[in-house]
Amino acid sequence: MQTSINSEIGKLEGVVVHTPGAEVENMTPENAERALYSDILNLSIASREYAQMIGVLRKTTQVLEVKKLLSDILKNDTCKAQLLKDVCVHEQIPGLEDELLQHNEEDLAALLTEGLILEKNNLTNYLNNERFLLRPLHNLFFTRDSAMGMNQSMLIGKMANPVRERETLIMEAIFKNHPVFETQVVNPLNNKSSILKSAQIKIEGGDFQVARPDVFVIGTGMRTSTQGIDFIIEHIKQQKKEPHHIIVQELPSTPESFIHLDMIFTFLDVDTCMAYDPVIFGTSRFRTIHIQIENGKVIKIGEEANIPSALRKLGIDLKSVSCGGKEDLWVQEREQWHSGANFFALAPGKVIGYERNVHTVEELNKNGFEVLKATDLTENKVSIDDYKKCVVTIAGSELARGGGGARCMTMPVRRAEVSW
Ligand SMILES: NC(=[NH2+])NCCC[C@H](N)C(=O)O
């Protein structure tokens, strides 16, 4: 499959996910914060909720599981040796490499994602408060963040927090080695530019959105640095001659529900977006900046009123639906916190999101989106093909505690072109 992401909404033709496993419970309240969770999760409930989402995805598109892709590439000895070397160098546990090499691909795929217990076999380890030698990847089910489709390339994330770094090593190994993918892998770590300092580059997929093949909307804040966006500018300068545009949105640094742009803004259809109004439209100090790149140069950089108005000038005219409804700031805040703006498009005008955000769902309904229950879809009682616009709702009381919603839990690798 040639990867191809030229929009946020084109009919989905391939998506990478990770069904949450033991790693989401491998934490205590004390280290939940380091794990980037707002609470500790119950796996059996989270799994039931997740099954609703994946059931809908399976009805719509080709679903690829990270663990399967990983164990496939680990069958190749060269690839296995390289990945284990990278992981051990990266996590500064050089002695572990030989031991890991002894495991078969399935056990390794589990160890690399669920973690490896630290054996209390000497005094230092005995006194060490850590439970894991190789830490669990608690956030792996948020596949959105560690790599992102940018036209025909996959851009590997550069995570803001060390707990998520191994995810990017795994994704890079998969996209470079798995025969199912044909793609050009772009990794900010290999940045050759003399003006950018690699250590300051941070880019996470939750901040990166493809509005049109030539227009990217990118958030900058806790997870994506301005230097990260400068890396993308350099990449475009080198690779593309025709005009390209980046719309940058500054994000608030608290509360943690503002971590990524997709927590306050998502695309729903060719002419509709979802927005958390207080940040997107509020008269605030969070700026929106338009950057135009052409023939290897930045030819324009300047401030805009907000994302929709910047996009309108580029010919993308969007009606905005309000997260939490229009009336009450309290309700807006509550639903934004529970990933109320975080929708994932299965096709233009057909999106999936959390059922719990009732005001947001009602607002979508007022804007012509039929509300469908995920379970009705998976039980074949309804089909999204019968609706022009719909919002499929999934349960999410436990999943949302991990800090994300449907867009965060999906990494699309191929979408059909959109007829604008
Ligand atoms: N695309 C997103 N909004 N992802 C949400 C990720 C949440 C995850 N707990 C983290 O903090 O990294």
TrEMBL record:
Catalytic activity, reaction form: L-arginine + H2O = L-citrulline + NH4(+)
Superkingdom of origin organism: Bacteria
The name this protein goes by in its record: arginine deiminase
Matches recorded under PANTHER family: ARGININE DEIMINASE (PTHR47271:SF2)
Similarity section: Belongs to the arginine deiminase family.
Location of the active site: 408 (amidino-cysteine intermediate)
Organism whose genome encodes this protein: Maribellus comscasis
Keywords tagged on the record: Hydrolase
Enzyme Commission code(s) on record: 3.5.3.6
Single annotated GO MF: arginine deiminase activity
Keyword Hydrolase: yes
Pathway: Amino-acid degradation; L-arginine degradation via ADI pathway; carbamoyl phosphate from L-arginine: step 1/2
A Gene Ontology biological process term: L-arginine deiminase pathway
Gene3D superfamilies: Arginine deiminase, L-arginine/glycine Amidinotransferase, Chain A
